[in-house]
Write a structure and sequence with these properties.
CATH class: Alpha Beta
Helix content: 25-40%
Number of helices: 8
Largest sheet: 7 strands, mixed
Structural class: alpha/beta
Number of strands: 9
CATH superfamily: Vaccinia Virus protein VP39
CATH topology: Rossmann fold
Strand order of the largest sheet: 5-4-3-6-7-9-8
Order of helices and strands: HEEHHHEHEHEEHEEHE
Oligomer: single chain
Radius of gyration: 16 Å
């Protein structure tokens, strides 16, 4: 985490409770559109949009599920993929995961994850990188919140998750009915009514489901 990235996060986001997961506090932007424009958004530069500054519906639902069902991650190494703020990773650490990696392609997100983990007094390994053409390492539980928001991302993400499931990992996804979620490959576990920033979602509450990826037929036994 660079001092510059940490300073940017502290300047533009406040450490506040997450609406659907009040046990956890993360740095969140008060005015999402202004920060999005300041970061130049996805259409104006190579800097990724500030996904780290908001508690997205999929992440909130997944974090809520993990805290309500700690047996999902307890005693297991966990990977939070496209981790954003690190909300889901923090929930996994609180629920008893033996280790938690939170991976992001945005260096500011990596800094936000480190700040948020420290604020919640948990240990999370914040990692800068793109894993989608690789594998999940030693993770036995893969968590991914709100990752099916574009066609390109959905294709890459699904391939990665299927490889992880074929290797024996449990894969859980939080998704608020994004257009590119391949529902036919998942089993619904729970649905929550998640408060969301109206400026980003055009609604105040979005129904959001936690899904389990059905493992491929060739998944190894055990």
């Amino acid at each position: 985490m660079t001092d510059t990235a940490a300073a940017f996060i502290r300047l533009h986001a406040r450490l506040t409770e997450v609406a659907g997961v009040p046990e956890i506090r993360i740095h969140q932007a008060d005015e999402p559109i202004g920060l999005w424009e300041l970061s130049e958004g996805e259409f104006h530069s190579e800097q990724p949009p500030p996904f780290w500054a908001f508690a997205w519906a999929g992440g909130q639902a997944l974090a809520r599920y993990v805290l309500d069902h700690p047996e999902t991650v307890a005693g297991q190494p966990v990977l939070d993929l496209a981790a954003g703020s690190g909300l889901v990773a923090i929930a996994a650490a609180r629920a008893g995961a033996t280790s938690v990696r939170a991976v992001e392609i945005d260096s500011r997100a990596v800094a936000a994850i480190a700040l948020n983990a420290a604020a919640n007094e948990v240990t999370v390994e914040a990692e800068h990188g793109d894993l989608l053409d690789g594998d999940a390492g030693d993770a036995r539980v893969i968590l991914a919140g709100d990752v099916f928001y574009s066609e390109v991302m959905a294709r890459r993400m699904l391939r990665f998750l299927l490889r992880a499931a074929a290797g024996g990992a449990e894969v859980l996804v939080g998704d608020p009915e994004r257009a590119y979620l391949p529902r036919e490959r998942f089993t619904a576990l729970a649905t929550y009514q998640i408060p969301v920033p109206e400026a980003l979602e055009s609604v105040q509450v979005r129904p959001t489901t936690v899904w389990r990826l059905r493992p491929p037929a060739n998944r190894p036994a055990g």
